[in-house]
Design a protein that fits this description.
The protein has one domain (about 5-145): SPOUT methyltransferase, trefoil knot domain (Alpha/beta knot). The chain is globular, with a radius of gyration of 15 Å. It has five helices and seven strands; from the N terminus they run βαβαβαβββαβα. The chain has helices spanning about 10-25, 40-50, 65, 110-115, 135-145; strands at about 5, 30, 55-60, 75-80, 85, 95-100, 120. It is of the alpha/beta class. Helices cover about 30% and strands about 20% of the residues. It has a seven-stranded parallel sheet.
Length: about 150
């Protein structure tokens, strides 16, 4: 089972949309604090609609609390700074898919430490700095599901 990890998300509507995506795909959602909002905010709830009961949600005080190194899943980090693209990740079906906040992304030290497991989504227009977080998670999660044979026609 895949795990989507959002590190210090700031925009409640993104988190709500990602929660809805996780509910629809049976994917665990992990939120790493501090959050830029209260999980009970109406904007988060509205974006997730009435699907929150289907979300397998965990919150963590820090990324260290989530224990990347001791987790049995492979950790994949997503950043515009990575060299390899997400289609080259070779997803197997149980990875932890880790995304940084909308404004700051993931820390450079973390990206350096896990350089071989860092991936990007190509952006072809140089004037565009980044994709919306909810869109990025959707792109990566569905590619992971495709690569691991979990999509059916």
């Amino acid at each position: 089972m895949y795990k989507v990890v959002l590190v210090e998300p700031k925009i409640p509507q993104n988190t709500g949309s990602i929660a809805r995506l996780c509910a629809a795909t049976g994917t665990q959602l992990h939120l790493v604090e501090p959050l830029g909002f209260e999980i009970t905010e109406s904007r988060v709830k509205r974006a997730g609609l009435d699907y929150w009961e289907f979300v397998n949600l965990s919150t963590h005080r820090s990324l260290q609390e989530l224990t990347i190194d001791s987790c049995s899943s492979r950790s994949c980090f997503f950043s515009k700074k990575a060299r390899k693209t997400y289609v080259d990740a070779g997803f197997q079906g149980d990875e932890m898919l880790i995304f940084g906040s909308e404004t700051d992304g993931l820390e450079d030290g973390l990206l350096a430490r896990y350089e071989n497991n860092c991936f990007r989504i190509p952006i072809f227009e140089p004037g565009v700095r980044s994709l919306n977080l909810a869109n990025a998670v959707s792109i990566v999660l569905y590619e992971a599901l495709r690569q691991s044979g979990r999509l059916t026609s």
